[in-house]
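Dig into this one:

. . .
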Amino acid sequence: MKVGITSDHRGYDLKELIKKEFKHDGVELIDYGTTSEEAVDYPDFAFKLANDVRDKKVDFGVTICGSGFGMSIACNKVKGIRCARVKDVEDVILTRNDNDANMISFSGRSSLELATAILNRMIDTPFSNEERHIRRINKIKEYEANN
């Protein structure tokens, strides 16, 4: 499994820590930048990763910015992306189970322990495949296709 990870300058330190410390059998983390704490525009990095998630070049995407909100908003502009801004493990379980989220976003102020727990849970939580959730996701896909 390939998981893309990206950040802006405010998420850079946490991204680098995750790259050093995160371990999960069969998971390769692929860094989409940024490469320093120098100020950058987060949409550039969000779009690059979201496009690769959409195109199935990576299985999931993780974005980190100051709040987690900006990256998630940018990612959700890419058709086929369901990016949830998460703050804890419960959020990840819900968005994977109910929304089949293919990307998550969180704050660069998160602890390494929380960030790795969130990432592990994202990888390990399958979509429920319940009819009601499939129906709702299909409505989103239909809307995207027609707008």
Remarks:
- The radius of gyration is 14 Å.
- The longest strand covers residues 2-7.
- The chain has a mean pLDDT of 97.
- The chain has six helices and five strands.
